[in-house]
Design goal:
Two copies of one chain form a homodimer.
Chain A: E1 2-4, H1 7-19, E2 24-29, H2 35-47, E3 50-55, H3 75-84, E4 89-91, H4 95-98, E5 105-109, H5 117-120, H6 124-139, E6 143-147, H7 151-163, E7 169-173, H8 193-198, H9 201-214, H10 219-231, E8 236-245, E9 258-266, E10 269-277
Parallel strand pairs in A: 1-4, 2-3, 2-6, 3-4, 6-7
Antiparallel strand pairs in A: 8-9, 9-10
Helix pairs in contact in A: 6-7, 9-10
Protein backbone atom coordinates (compact mmCIF):
# COMPACT_ATOMS: atom_id res chain seq x y z
CA UNK A 1 0.00 0.00 0.00
CA UNK A 2 1.27 3.44 -0.93
CA UNK A 3 0.76 6.28 1.54
CA UNK A 4 0.77 9.66 -0.23
CA UNK A 5 0.42 13.09 1.32
CA UNK A 6 0.31 15.48 -1.63
CA UNK A 7 -1.86 15.71 -4.71
CA UNK A 8 1.22 15.34 -6.92
CA UNK A 9 2.16 12.06 -5.19
CA UNK A 10 -1.44 10.90 -5.50
CA UNK A 11 -1.47 11.54 -9.25
CA UNK A 12 1.82 9.72 -9.65
CA UNK A 13 0.48 6.73 -7.69
CA UNK A 14 -2.73 6.59 -9.75
CA UNK A 15 -1.21 7.20 -13.20
CA UNK A 16 -0.65 3.47 -13.95
CA UNK A 17 -4.31 2.74 -13.15
CA UNK A 18 -5.47 5.60 -15.37
CA UNK A 19 -3.25 4.53 -18.28
CA UNK A 20 -4.55 0.97 -18.15
CA UNK A 21 -8.12 2.18 -17.47
CA UNK A 22 -8.44 0.07 -14.33
CA UNK A 23 -11.44 1.08 -12.24
CA UNK A 24 -10.81 3.09 -9.08
CA UNK A 25 -12.97 2.66 -5.99
CA UNK A 26 -12.71 5.51 -3.49
CA UNK A 27 -13.54 5.66 0.22
CA UNK A 28 -13.25 9.21 1.62
CA UNK A 29 -13.00 9.27 5.42
CA UNK A 30 -11.95 11.47 8.33
CA UNK A 31 -9.93 8.57 9.77
CA UNK A 32 -10.61 6.99 13.18
CA UNK A 33 -11.57 3.96 11.12
CA UNK A 34 -14.00 1.38 12.49
CA UNK A 35 -15.93 -1.59 11.11
CA UNK A 36 -18.30 0.77 9.29
CA UNK A 37 -15.41 2.16 7.22
CA UNK A 38 -14.09 -1.37 6.81
CA UNK A 39 -17.36 -2.41 5.15
CA UNK A 40 -16.87 0.42 2.62
CA UNK A 41 -13.29 -0.66 1.92
CA UNK A 42 -14.41 -4.27 1.52
CA UNK A 43 -17.08 -3.26 -1.00
CA UNK A 44 -14.56 -1.13 -2.91
CA UNK A 45 -12.09 -4.03 -2.90
CA UNK A 46 -14.71 -6.44 -4.29
CA UNK A 47 -16.05 -4.10 -6.97
CA UNK A 48 -12.97 -2.29 -8.27
CA UNK A 49 -9.43 -2.80 -9.50
CA UNK A 50 -7.76 -0.14 -7.38
CA UNK A 51 -8.88 0.99 -3.92
CA UNK A 52 -8.09 4.52 -2.72
CA UNK A 53 -8.74 5.62 0.85
CA UNK A 54 -8.50 9.25 1.95
CA UNK A 55 -8.00 10.29 5.55
CA UNK A 56 -8.62 13.98 6.07
CA UNK A 57 -10.26 15.66 9.05
CA UNK A 58 -11.88 18.41 7.02
CA UNK A 59 -11.98 21.66 9.01
CA UNK A 60 -14.56 23.18 6.62
CA UNK A 61 -17.27 20.86 7.85
CA UNK A 62 -16.86 21.67 11.55
CA UNK A 63 -18.63 24.64 13.11
CA UNK A 64 -16.67 27.06 15.30
CA UNK A 65 -18.16 25.49 18.46
CA UNK A 66 -17.76 21.90 17.29
CA UNK A 67 -15.24 19.14 18.00
CA UNK A 68 -12.57 19.71 15.32
CA UNK A 69 -9.69 19.75 17.82
CA UNK A 70 -11.05 16.79 19.81
CA UNK A 71 -12.01 14.67 16.79
CA UNK A 72 -10.26 11.28 17.23
CA UNK A 73 -7.09 10.83 15.18
CA UNK A 74 -5.39 7.46 14.87
CA UNK A 75 -3.38 7.51 11.66
CA UNK A 76 -1.10 4.60 12.44
CA UNK A 77 -3.95 2.23 13.35
CA UNK A 78 -5.98 3.52 10.37
CA UNK A 79 -3.19 2.74 7.91
CA UNK A 80 -2.76 -0.70 9.45
CA UNK A 81 -6.46 -1.40 8.99
CA UNK A 82 -6.32 -0.04 5.43
CA UNK A 83 -3.39 -2.32 4.60
CA UNK A 84 -5.28 -5.32 5.94
CA UNK A 85 -8.36 -4.33 3.92
CA UNK A 86 -6.41 -4.38 0.67
CA UNK A 87 -6.25 -0.62 0.08
CA UNK A 88 -3.80 0.26 -2.71
CA UNK A 89 -3.33 3.98 -2.05
CA UNK A 90 -3.98 5.94 1.15
CA UNK A 91 -4.17 9.70 0.58
CA UNK A 92 -3.46 11.57 3.82
CA UNK A 93 -3.16 15.26 2.95
CA UNK A 94 -2.50 18.09 5.39
CA UNK A 95 -4.93 20.99 5.73
CA UNK A 96 -2.43 23.24 3.91
CA UNK A 97 -2.22 20.74 1.04
CA UNK A 98 -5.99 20.70 0.61
CA UNK A 99 -6.63 24.37 1.35
CA UNK A 100 -3.66 26.57 0.48
CA UNK A 101 -3.87 30.26 1.39
CA UNK A 102 -6.13 32.20 -0.95
CA UNK A 103 -8.72 29.44 -1.29
CA UNK A 104 -11.98 31.07 -2.36
CA UNK A 105 -14.28 28.38 -3.84
CA UNK A 106 -17.25 26.81 -2.06
CA UNK A 107 -19.67 24.17 -3.30
CA UNK A 108 -23.14 24.59 -1.78
CA UNK A 109 -26.08 22.22 -1.97
CA UNK A 110 -29.44 23.61 -0.99
CA UNK A 111 -32.35 21.16 -1.05
CA UNK A 112 -31.42 18.24 1.22
CA UNK A 113 -28.71 20.31 2.93
CA UNK A 114 -31.07 22.91 4.38
CA UNK A 115 -32.87 20.86 7.00
CA UNK A 116 -32.13 18.80 10.15
CA UNK A 117 -28.31 18.33 10.20
CA UNK A 118 -27.98 21.33 7.88
CA UNK A 119 -30.04 23.48 10.23
CA UNK A 120 -28.28 22.14 13.35
CA UNK A 121 -24.80 22.57 11.82
CA UNK A 122 -24.67 25.74 9.65
CA UNK A 123 -22.01 25.42 6.95
CA UNK A 124 -21.48 21.71 7.61
CA UNK A 125 -22.78 20.45 4.28
CA UNK A 126 -21.04 23.23 2.33
CA UNK A 127 -17.83 21.92 3.90
CA UNK A 128 -18.73 18.35 3.00
CA UNK A 129 -19.71 19.22 -0.59
CA UNK A 130 -16.58 21.32 -1.11
CA UNK A 131 -14.13 18.69 0.11
CA UNK A 132 -15.90 15.83 -1.67
CA UNK A 133 -15.99 17.77 -4.95
CA UNK A 134 -12.25 18.37 -4.60
CA UNK A 135 -11.45 14.78 -3.60
CA UNK A 136 -13.48 13.49 -6.55
CA UNK A 137 -11.40 15.67 -8.89
CA UNK A 138 -8.16 14.49 -7.28
CA UNK A 139 -8.94 10.76 -7.22
CA UNK A 140 -11.33 10.58 -10.22
CA UNK A 141 -12.86 7.29 -9.09
CA UNK A 142 -15.42 5.27 -11.01
CA UNK A 143 -17.17 4.45 -7.71
CA UNK A 144 -17.20 6.21 -4.34
CA UNK A 145 -18.46 4.59 -1.14
CA UNK A 146 -20.44 6.21 1.65
CA UNK A 147 -22.22 4.84 4.70
CA UNK A 148 -26.00 4.90 5.07
CA UNK A 149 -25.37 6.02 8.67
CA UNK A 150 -24.79 9.58 7.36
CA UNK A 151 -27.98 9.52 5.29
CA UNK A 152 -28.30 13.27 4.82
CA UNK A 153 -24.68 13.46 3.70
CA UNK A 154 -25.51 10.77 1.15
CA UNK A 155 -28.46 12.83 -0.13
CA UNK A 156 -26.22 15.92 -0.40
CA UNK A 157 -23.50 14.03 -2.27
CA UNK A 158 -25.99 12.42 -4.64
CA UNK A 159 -27.40 15.89 -5.39
CA UNK A 160 -23.89 17.26 -5.96
CA UNK A 161 -23.00 14.40 -8.31
CA UNK A 162 -26.26 14.76 -10.25
CA UNK A 163 -26.21 18.57 -10.47
CA UNK A 164 -22.54 18.92 -11.45
CA UNK A 165 -22.48 15.77 -13.63
CA UNK A 166 -19.60 14.32 -11.61
CA UNK A 167 -18.57 11.12 -13.43
CA UNK A 168 -18.77 8.84 -10.39
CA UNK A 169 -21.19 6.20 -9.13
CA UNK A 170 -22.15 6.79 -5.49
CA UNK A 171 -22.40 3.45 -3.67
CA UNK A 172 -24.17 3.48 -0.30
CA UNK A 173 -23.36 0.70 2.17
CA UNK A 174 -25.61 -0.32 5.09
CA UNK A 175 -25.02 1.05 8.58
CA UNK A 176 -22.83 -1.22 10.67
CA UNK A 177 -24.02 -1.66 14.26
CA UNK A 178 -22.74 -2.99 17.55
CA UNK A 179 -24.52 -6.12 18.78
CA UNK A 180 -26.86 -3.92 20.87
CA UNK A 181 -27.79 -1.80 17.86
CA UNK A 182 -25.61 1.29 18.40
CA UNK A 183 -24.50 2.56 14.99
CA UNK A 184 -20.72 2.62 14.67
CA UNK A 185 -19.34 6.17 14.72
CA UNK A 186 -15.95 7.64 15.41
CA UNK A 187 -17.73 9.91 17.89
CA UNK A 188 -18.77 6.91 20.02
CA UNK A 189 -15.25 7.25 21.45
CA UNK A 190 -16.53 10.28 23.38
CA UNK A 191 -19.03 8.15 25.38
CA UNK A 192 -18.43 7.27 29.04
CA UNK A 193 -19.56 3.72 29.97
CA UNK A 194 -22.99 4.77 31.30
CA UNK A 195 -23.52 7.01 28.28
CA UNK A 196 -22.55 4.16 25.98
CA UNK A 197 -25.47 2.13 27.42
CA UNK A 198 -27.90 5.05 27.16
CA UNK A 199 -26.83 5.71 23.55
CA UNK A 200 -28.63 2.59 22.36
CA UNK A 201 -31.83 4.61 22.78
CA UNK A 202 -31.37 6.01 19.24
CA UNK A 203 -31.65 2.53 17.77
CA UNK A 204 -34.48 1.56 20.11
CA UNK A 205 -36.39 4.69 19.09
CA UNK A 206 -35.87 3.94 15.38
CA UNK A 207 -37.11 0.39 15.89
CA UNK A 208 -40.18 1.63 17.77
CA UNK A 209 -40.77 4.06 14.90
CA UNK A 210 -40.49 1.22 12.39
CA UNK A 211 -43.06 -0.83 14.31
CA UNK A 212 -45.42 2.14 14.26
CA UNK A 213 -44.95 2.42 10.50
CA UNK A 214 -45.80 -1.27 10.15
CA UNK A 215 -48.93 -0.63 12.21
CA UNK A 216 -49.97 2.07 9.70
CA UNK A 217 -49.49 4.98 12.11
CA UNK A 218 -49.39 8.49 10.62
CA UNK A 219 -45.93 10.06 10.25
CA UNK A 220 -46.82 12.38 13.12
CA UNK A 221 -47.53 9.40 15.38
CA UNK A 222 -44.34 7.67 14.19
CA UNK A 223 -42.36 10.76 15.20
CA UNK A 224 -44.10 11.01 18.59
CA UNK A 225 -43.38 7.33 19.19
CA UNK A 226 -39.65 7.87 18.65
CA UNK A 227 -39.66 11.01 20.82
CA UNK A 228 -41.34 9.11 23.63
CA UNK A 229 -38.71 6.38 23.62
CA UNK A 230 -35.93 8.95 23.92
CA UNK A 231 -37.79 10.90 26.60
CA UNK A 232 -37.72 7.79 28.80
CA UNK A 233 -33.92 7.61 28.68
CA UNK A 234 -32.29 9.94 31.22
CA UNK A 235 -29.16 11.79 30.08
CA UNK A 236 -30.08 11.79 26.41
CA UNK A 237 -31.17 15.12 24.88
CA UNK A 238 -33.15 14.60 21.70
CA UNK A 239 -32.46 17.06 18.85
CA UNK A 240 -34.92 15.63 16.37
CA UNK A 241 -36.77 12.43 15.48
CA UNK A 242 -38.39 12.67 12.08
CA UNK A 243 -39.80 10.76 9.14
CA UNK A 244 -38.48 12.31 5.89
CA UNK A 245 -38.16 11.57 2.18
CA UNK A 246 -34.74 9.97 1.64
CA UNK A 247 -33.75 12.21 -1.30
CA UNK A 248 -35.01 15.60 -0.15
CA UNK A 249 -35.23 15.32 3.64
CA UNK A 250 -38.60 17.06 3.32
CA UNK A 251 -41.87 15.59 4.63
CA UNK A 252 -42.46 12.38 2.66
CA UNK A 253 -44.97 12.25 -0.18
CA UNK A 254 -46.84 9.07 -1.14
CA UNK A 255 -44.61 6.38 -2.64
CA UNK A 256 -41.30 8.03 -1.70
CA UNK A 257 -38.58 6.10 0.10
CA UNK A 258 -38.87 7.22 3.72
CA UNK A 259 -36.17 7.48 6.33
CA UNK A 260 -36.65 7.67 10.05
CA UNK A 261 -33.88 9.98 11.22
CA UNK A 262 -32.79 10.83 14.72
CA UNK A 263 -30.18 13.00 16.40
CA UNK A 264 -29.41 13.34 20.10
CA UNK A 265 -26.73 14.48 22.50
CA UNK A 266 -25.34 11.89 24.87
CA UNK A 267 -22.68 13.36 27.13
CA UNK A 268 -20.15 15.15 24.91
CA UNK A 269 -21.23 13.20 21.84
CA UNK A 270 -23.77 14.34 19.28
CA UNK A 271 -25.01 11.13 17.66
CA UNK A 272 -27.15 10.52 14.58
CA UNK A 273 -28.80 7.42 13.20
CA UNK A 274 -31.49 6.48 10.69
CA UNK A 275 -33.57 3.60 9.38
CA UNK A 276 -35.09 3.27 5.90
CA UNK A 277 -38.73 2.18 6.07
CA UNK A 278 -41.37 1.32 3.49
CA UNK A 279 -45.06 1.90 3.82
CA UNK B 1 -18.53 17.13 -36.80
CA UNK B 2 -20.99 15.56 -34.39
CA UNK B 3 -23.69 17.78 -32.90
CA UNK B 4 -24.94 16.36 -29.60
CA UNK B 5 -27.66 17.74 -27.35
CA UNK B 6 -27.64 15.48 -24.30
CA UNK B 7 -24.96 14.46 -21.85
CA UNK B 8 -25.49 10.80 -22.81
CA UNK B 9 -24.84 11.60 -26.48
CA UNK B 10 -21.79 13.64 -25.48
CA UNK B 11 -20.32 10.74 -23.50
CA UNK B 12 -20.96 8.38 -26.40
CA UNK B 13 -19.24 10.77 -28.81
CA UNK B 14 -16.21 11.18 -26.53
CA UNK B 15 -15.80 7.55 -25.46
CA UNK B 16 -13.41 6.65 -28.34
CA UNK B 17 -11.16 9.60 -27.42
CA UNK B 18 -11.18 8.57 -23.76
CA UNK B 19 -10.39 4.93 -24.54
CA UNK B 20 -7.44 5.87 -26.73
CA UNK B 21 -6.41 8.64 -24.27
CA UNK B 22 -6.42 11.30 -26.97
CA UNK B 23 -6.29 14.81 -25.53
CA UNK B 24 -9.49 16.84 -25.52
CA UNK B 25 -9.45 20.63 -25.99
CA UNK B 26 -12.64 22.36 -24.88
CA UNK B 27 -14.07 25.77 -25.79
CA UNK B 28 -17.17 26.63 -23.73
CA UNK B 29 -19.26 29.42 -25.28
CA UNK B 30 -22.70 31.01 -25.24
CA UNK B 31 -22.81 30.87 -29.05
CA UNK B 32 -23.09 33.97 -31.28
CA UNK B 33 -19.59 32.99 -32.33
CA UNK B 34 -17.18 35.62 -33.66
CA UNK B 35 -13.48 35.80 -34.49
CA UNK B 36 -12.65 35.85 -30.77
CA UNK B 37 -14.22 32.42 -30.30
CA UNK B 38 -12.58 31.31 -33.54
CA UNK B 39 -9.15 32.08 -32.09
CA UNK B 40 -9.97 29.78 -29.15
CA UNK B 41 -11.09 26.99 -31.47
CA UNK B 42 -7.95 27.42 -33.57
CA UNK B 43 -5.73 27.14 -30.49
CA UNK B 44 -7.64 24.05 -29.34
CA UNK B 45 -7.31 22.52 -32.81
CA UNK B 46 -3.54 23.14 -32.84
CA UNK B 47 -2.87 21.86 -29.32
CA UNK B 48 -5.22 18.88 -28.94
CA UNK B 49 -6.40 15.71 -30.60
CA UNK B 50 -10.12 16.27 -30.20
CA UNK B 51 -11.88 19.66 -30.11
CA UNK B 52 -15.16 20.06 -28.24
CA UNK B 53 -17.26 23.23 -28.46
CA UNK B 54 -20.21 23.89 -26.18
CA UNK B 55 -22.94 26.37 -27.03
CA UNK B 56 -25.16 27.12 -24.05
CA UNK B 57 -26.69 30.45 -23.09
CA UNK B 58 -26.45 29.85 -19.36
CA UNK B 59 -29.42 31.44 -17.58
CA UNK B 60 -27.68 31.18 -14.18
CA UNK B 61 -25.17 33.87 -15.13
CA UNK B 62 -27.76 36.48 -16.13
CA UNK B 63 -29.35 38.78 -13.55
CA UNK B 64 -33.13 39.22 -13.50
CA UNK B 65 -32.83 42.61 -15.23
CA UNK B 66 -30.22 41.50 -17.76
CA UNK B 67 -30.35 40.50 -21.42
CA UNK B 68 -30.97 36.72 -21.24
CA UNK B 69 -33.97 36.85 -23.61
CA UNK B 70 -32.28 39.27 -26.02
CA UNK B 71 -28.88 37.56 -26.01
CA UNK B 72 -28.01 36.85 -29.68
CA UNK B 73 -28.61 33.26 -30.80
CA UNK B 74 -27.33 31.99 -34.15
CA UNK B 75 -26.98 28.24 -33.85
CA UNK B 76 -26.89 27.44 -37.54
CA UNK B 77 -24.14 29.95 -38.32
CA UNK B 78 -22.28 28.90 -35.15
CA UNK B 79 -22.24 25.24 -36.17
CA UNK B 80 -21.10 26.21 -39.68
CA UNK B 81 -18.20 28.19 -38.20
CA UNK B 82 -17.40 25.31 -35.82
CA UNK B 83 -17.30 22.85 -38.71
CA UNK B 84 -14.92 25.11 -40.63
CA UNK B 85 -12.72 25.47 -37.55
CA UNK B 86 -12.25 21.72 -37.29
CA UNK B 87 -14.42 21.13 -34.23
CA UNK B 88 -15.06 17.41 -33.66
CA UNK B 89 -18.02 17.58 -31.27
CA UNK B 90 -20.43 20.47 -30.67
CA UNK B 91 -22.41 20.09 -27.44
CA UNK B 92 -25.62 22.15 -27.60
CA UNK B 93 -27.70 21.24 -24.55
CA UNK B 94 -31.07 22.69 -23.62
CA UNK B 95 -31.62 24.45 -20.30
CA UNK B 96 -33.62 21.43 -19.07
CA UNK B 97 -30.76 19.10 -20.01
CA UNK B 98 -28.27 21.15 -18.00
CA UNK B 99 -30.55 22.08 -15.12
CA UNK B 100 -33.28 19.49 -14.54
CA UNK B 101 -35.94 20.29 -11.95
CA UNK B 102 -34.65 19.88 -8.40
CA UNK B 103 -31.20 21.27 -9.13
CA UNK B 104 -29.74 22.49 -5.86
CA UNK B 105 -25.94 22.82 -6.22
CA UNK B 106 -24.05 26.09 -6.66
CA UNK B 107 -20.32 26.68 -7.02
CA UNK B 108 -19.26 30.04 -5.58
CA UNK B 109 -15.92 31.78 -5.90
CA UNK B 110 -15.27 34.64 -3.54
CA UNK B 111 -11.97 36.45 -3.97
CA UNK B 112 -11.80 37.67 -7.57
CA UNK B 113 -15.57 37.27 -7.99
CA UNK B 114 -16.50 39.86 -5.35
CA UNK B 115 -15.47 43.06 -7.08
CA UNK B 116 -16.15 45.04 -10.29
CA UNK B 117 -18.16 42.69 -12.54
CA UNK B 118 -19.10 40.64 -9.48
CA UNK B 119 -20.38 43.74 -7.71
CA UNK B 120 -22.14 45.05 -10.82
CA UNK B 121 -23.73 41.69 -11.63
CA UNK B 122 -24.73 39.88 -8.39
CA UNK B 123 -24.79 36.11 -8.90
CA UNK B 124 -23.10 36.33 -12.30
CA UNK B 125 -19.87 34.57 -11.34
CA UNK B 126 -21.70 31.92 -9.27
CA UNK B 127 -23.57 31.15 -12.49
CA UNK B 128 -20.33 31.04 -14.48
CA UNK B 129 -18.52 28.87 -11.92
CA UNK B 130 -21.46 26.46 -11.61
CA UNK B 131 -21.88 25.91 -15.35
CA UNK B 132 -18.14 25.67 -16.00
CA UNK B 133 -17.68 23.14 -13.16
CA UNK B 134 -20.47 21.06 -14.69
CA UNK B 135 -19.18 21.37 -18.26
CA UNK B 136 -15.68 20.38 -17.11
CA UNK B 137 -17.15 17.21 -15.54
CA UNK B 138 -19.15 16.45 -18.68
CA UNK B 139 -16.36 17.03 -21.21
CA UNK B 140 -13.35 16.20 -18.99
CA UNK B 141 -10.91 18.07 -21.23
CA UNK B 142 -7.16 18.22 -20.80
CA UNK B 143 -7.23 21.89 -21.85
CA UNK B 144 -9.98 24.52 -21.78
CA UNK B 145 -9.79 27.82 -23.65
CA UNK B 146 -11.00 31.22 -22.51
CA UNK B 147 -10.59 34.73 -23.87
CA UNK B 148 -8.55 37.40 -22.11
CA UNK B 149 -11.41 39.77 -22.95
CA UNK B 150 -13.34 38.35 -19.97
CA UNK B 151 -10.38 38.76 -17.62
CA UNK B 152 -12.31 38.56 -14.38
CA UNK B 153 -14.06 35.39 -15.58
CA UNK B 154 -10.59 33.98 -16.27
CA UNK B 155 -9.50 34.81 -12.71
CA UNK B 156 -12.64 33.16 -11.32
CA UNK B 157 -12.16 30.00 -13.40
CA UNK B 158 -8.48 29.76 -12.51
CA UNK B 159 -9.44 30.03 -8.82
CA UNK B 160 -12.13 27.35 -9.27
CA UNK B 161 -9.69 24.99 -11.01
CA UNK B 162 -7.02 25.54 -8.36
CA UNK B 163 -9.33 25.30 -5.34
CA UNK B 164 -11.26 22.21 -6.49
CA UNK B 165 -8.24 20.50 -8.13
CA UNK B 166 -10.04 20.29 -11.46
CA UNK B 167 -7.77 18.25 -13.76
CA UNK B 168 -7.69 20.78 -16.62
CA UNK B 169 -5.20 23.30 -17.96
CA UNK B 170 -6.79 26.73 -18.45
CA UNK B 171 -5.45 28.35 -21.62
CA UNK B 172 -6.07 32.07 -22.02
CA UNK B 173 -6.04 33.52 -25.55
CA UNK B 174 -5.49 37.22 -26.36
CA UNK B 175 -8.43 39.54 -26.94
CA UNK B 176 -9.35 39.81 -30.62
CA UNK B 177 -10.14 43.36 -31.75
CA UNK B 178 -11.69 45.12 -34.72
CA UNK B 179 -9.24 47.26 -36.72
CA UNK B 180 -10.28 50.32 -34.68
CA UNK B 181 -9.59 48.53 -31.39
CA UNK B 182 -13.10 47.55 -30.30
CA UNK B 183 -12.88 44.18 -28.55
CA UNK B 184 -15.02 41.54 -30.23
CA UNK B 185 -18.10 40.68 -28.19
CA UNK B 186 -21.41 39.03 -28.98
CA UNK B 187 -23.00 42.05 -27.31
CA UNK B 188 -21.54 44.41 -29.95
CA UNK B 189 -24.58 43.28 -32.00
CA UNK B 190 -26.67 45.58 -29.76
CA UNK B 191 -24.82 48.70 -30.96
CA UNK B 192 -26.41 51.20 -33.38
CA UNK B 193 -23.95 52.67 -35.94
CA UNK B 194 -23.23 55.86 -33.96
CA UNK B 195 -22.85 53.82 -30.75
CA UNK B 196 -20.48 51.48 -32.55
CA UNK B 197 -18.16 54.43 -33.24
CA UNK B 198 -18.44 55.74 -29.68
CA UNK B 199 -17.71 52.26 -28.29
CA UNK B 200 -14.07 52.51 -29.35
CA UNK B 201 -13.63 54.82 -26.37
CA UNK B 202 -13.06 51.78 -24.12
CA UNK B 203 -9.96 50.84 -26.11
CA UNK B 204 -8.81 54.48 -26.37
CA UNK B 205 -9.15 54.83 -22.60
CA UNK B 206 -7.15 51.64 -21.98
CA UNK B 207 -4.40 52.86 -24.32
CA UNK B 208 -4.29 56.23 -22.57
CA UNK B 209 -4.04 54.36 -19.28
CA UNK B 210 -1.18 52.26 -20.63
CA UNK B 211 0.70 55.41 -21.69
CA UNK B 212 0.24 56.83 -18.20
CA UNK B 213 1.66 53.59 -16.74
CA UNK B 214 4.66 53.91 -19.04
CA UNK B 215 5.12 57.48 -17.80
CA UNK B 216 5.27 56.14 -14.22
CA UNK B 217 1.97 57.68 -13.13
CA UNK B 218 0.43 56.41 -9.88
CA UNK B 219 -2.44 53.94 -10.22
CA UNK B 220 -4.78 56.69 -9.12
CA UNK B 221 -3.61 58.93 -11.95
CA UNK B 222 -3.85 56.02 -14.41
CA UNK B 223 -7.47 55.51 -13.40
CA UNK B 224 -8.26 59.25 -13.66
CA UNK B 225 -6.67 59.30 -17.10
CA UNK B 226 -8.98 56.53 -18.32
CA UNK B 227 -12.01 58.17 -16.75
CA UNK B 228 -11.20 61.45 -18.49
CA UNK B 229 -11.05 59.80 -21.92
CA UNK B 230 -14.49 58.24 -21.41
CA UNK B 231 -15.95 61.49 -20.01
CA UNK B 232 -15.10 63.17 -23.32
CA UNK B 233 -17.20 60.69 -25.31
CA UNK B 234 -20.91 61.61 -25.30
CA UNK B 235 -23.38 58.71 -24.97
CA UNK B 236 -21.00 56.46 -23.07
CA UNK B 237 -21.70 55.90 -19.35
CA UNK B 238 -18.62 54.69 -17.51
CA UNK B 239 -19.17 52.04 -14.83
CA UNK B 240 -15.57 51.68 -13.76
CA UNK B 241 -12.01 52.20 -14.99
CA UNK B 242 -9.51 50.56 -12.66
CA UNK B 243 -6.01 49.19 -12.31
CA UNK B 244 -6.15 45.84 -10.51
CA UNK B 245 -4.05 42.74 -9.78
CA UNK B 246 -4.82 40.19 -12.50
CA UNK B 247 -5.37 37.26 -10.12
CA UNK B 248 -7.31 38.90 -7.31
CA UNK B 249 -8.88 42.00 -8.90
CA UNK B 250 -7.81 43.84 -5.76
CA UNK B 251 -5.58 46.94 -5.77
CA UNK B 252 -2.22 45.82 -7.21
CA UNK B 253 0.77 45.21 -4.94
CA UNK B 254 4.37 45.69 -6.11
CA UNK B 255 5.46 43.19 -8.72
CA UNK B 256 2.00 41.76 -9.47
CA UNK B 257 0.69 41.45 -13.01
CA UNK B 258 -1.63 44.44 -13.41
CA UNK B 259 -4.72 44.75 -15.57
CA UNK B 260 -6.38 47.95 -16.61
CA UNK B 261 -10.08 47.07 -16.65
CA UNK B 262 -13.00 49.09 -17.90
CA UNK B 263 -16.78 48.72 -18.17
CA UNK B 264 -19.28 51.12 -19.73
CA UNK B 265 -22.78 51.26 -21.10
CA UNK B 266 -23.16 52.26 -24.73
CA UNK B 267 -26.80 52.31 -25.79
CA UNK B 268 -28.34 48.98 -24.77
CA UNK B 269 -24.95 47.31 -24.57
CA UNK B 270 -22.88 46.89 -21.44
CA UNK B 271 -19.30 46.48 -22.67
CA UNK B 272 -16.12 45.43 -20.89
CA UNK B 273 -12.48 45.44 -21.94
CA UNK B 274 -9.04 45.20 -20.34
CA UNK B 275 -5.35 45.53 -21.04
CA UNK B 276 -2.50 43.79 -19.18
CA UNK B 277 0.29 46.22 -18.28
CA UNK B 278 3.67 45.94 -16.62
CA UNK B 279 5.35 48.49 -14.47
Amino acid sequence: MKVVRTEAELQEALEPARVSRRSIGFVPTMGALHAGHLSLLTAAREQGDVVVLSIFVNPLQFGADEDLAAYPRSEEADLEMARDAGVDVSFVPSVDEMYPAGRSTTVSVRGPARLLEGAARPGHFDGVATVVAKLFNQVRPQRAYFGQKDAQQVAVIKALVRDLSVPVEVVVCPTVRESDGLALSSRNAYLEPSERTAATVLWRALQAGERAVEEQATWEVVEKTMEQVVANEPGVALEYARAVAANTFEAPADGEQVLLVIAARVGRARLIDNLPVRR
